[in-house]
Amino acid sequence: MGAQIERLAELVASVKASSRYRQVSEALIREIGARELARRTGFKEAVKATKNKLHQVGGAYLTDKYDYNAWLSELTRLAHGEDREGFLAYLKTIMNHHASTRERLPILEQFYQTILAELPPVRSVLDIACGLNPLALPWMPFAVPVEYRACDIYHDMVDFLNHFMALLPVQGQAEVRDVLQDCPTRAVDLALVLKTIPCLEQVDKTAGSRLLHTINARHIVVSFPVHSLGGRARGMQNHYATGFQALLDPAWSVKRLEFATELAFLITKDRQ
Ligand SMILES: C[S@@+](CC[C@H](N)C(=O)[O-])C[C@H]1O[C@@H](n2cnc3c(N)ncnc32)[C@H](O)[C@@H]1O
Predict the structure, then answer these.
(1) Residues of the chain falling short of pLDDT 50
(2) Neighbours of 262 (CB within 10 A)
(3) Contacts with 190 (C-beta within 8 Å, 6 or more apart), sequence order
C-alpha cells in the first residue's frame, strides 16, 4: 500500500515537472495517474499515458499561443475605455484560442439568446468545465443581475477568468475543480455543461450520468460538438444524441436545440 502511494506521488511529481501540465489540477493528475498505474506495470508508460490523457481532456483544445497576462492587460485597457466594439472584438480573438469557444463564435449570439428565451429569469449560473466560455458573458442576455460560477482544471486559466469577470458587472467566480471527483452541488437556476461529457467520459464512462444527476440546477444545458477536433462530422450528432438519452432520468423534460456548430439539449429537472 505504502509503495503504491509512493509510486503515485512520484508519478504526480513527474507529470507536474513538465511545463505543459504544471497548471493542471493535482486532483485530476492523481486520479488519472492512479488508473494508469493500476493498468500497467511500467512506471514510465504510466507517466506517458497520464500525460496523453490530460492532453486529450484539456490541452488538445487550447492553442499553444495563449498569453493570459497580455490578454488581461489589453482587456483591462479596453474595459476602461469607450470602445465597446473593440472590447467585444478582442474577446472574440481570445475565444479563438480554445477550440470549443472558437466553434461557437459563428453562433454566439443566437446560442445564448435561444437558450435564455426558453427560461424564466436566470439569477445564478454554473459553468462546468468552462474553458474560455465565461468570455462569452457579454453575449448572454440575462434579464436580471447574475451570479456566475465557473470551474475548469487549469490554475492559470481560472486566475485569468477571475480577473476578467471582475471587469464586468457580474458577480463572477471561477475555481479549479476536477468535476469527476468533486462535482459542484450548489443550487443554481442554470448549469452549462457545454461539450464536456465526451471529454469526461474518456476518463470515466459513468461521468456523464453522475454529473447530470449530481448537479443541483433547475435547468441544465448539455451540448455536444458536431465536428471532431480533426473536423470530421459523419454520424457524430446521432452518436451523441443516442448516448445522451441513456444518461437521462425519466422525470426530467428535455428539449433539443440544434445550432450550426453545436447540438444542445435543455434539461428541466424542476418543472415548477
Ligand atoms: C471540450 S472543452 C469545453 C469547454 C467549454 N465548456 C466550452 O464549451 O466552451 C472541455 C473542457 O473540460 C475541461 N475539463 C476536462 N476534464 C475536466 C475535469 N475533470 N474537471 C473539470 N474540467 C475538466 C477542459 O480543460 C476543457 O476546458
Answers:
(1) none
(2) 21
(3) 119, 122, 124, 125, 126, 217, 218, 219, 220, 221
Q: Return the closest-CA partner of residue 261 out of 223, 230, 235.
A: 223
Three cell numbers written together for 200: 469526461
> What number of residues does the chain have?
272
CB of 100 closer than 6 A to ligand 1? Answer: yes
CA–centroid distance, 67 to ligand 1, in Å, is: 19
This prediction has a pTM of 0.96
How much is the pLDDT for 137?
98
Predicted confidence at residue 184, as pLDDT, reads: 95
Long-range contacts of 169-173 (CB under 8 A, 24+ apart): 169/145, 170/137, 170/145, 170/146, 171/145, 171/146, 171/147, 172/134, 172/137, 172/147, 172/148, 173/148, 173/149
Ligand 1: nearest atom to the Cα of 196: 10
**How many other CB atoms are there within 10 angstroms of residue 71's CB atom?**
20
Candidates 20, 23, 32, 57: which one to mutate for ligand 1, based on the most atoms within 8 Å of Cβ?
A: 57
Quickly tell me which residue has 479596453 as its cell: 78
CB of 122 within 6 A of ligand 1: the answer is: no
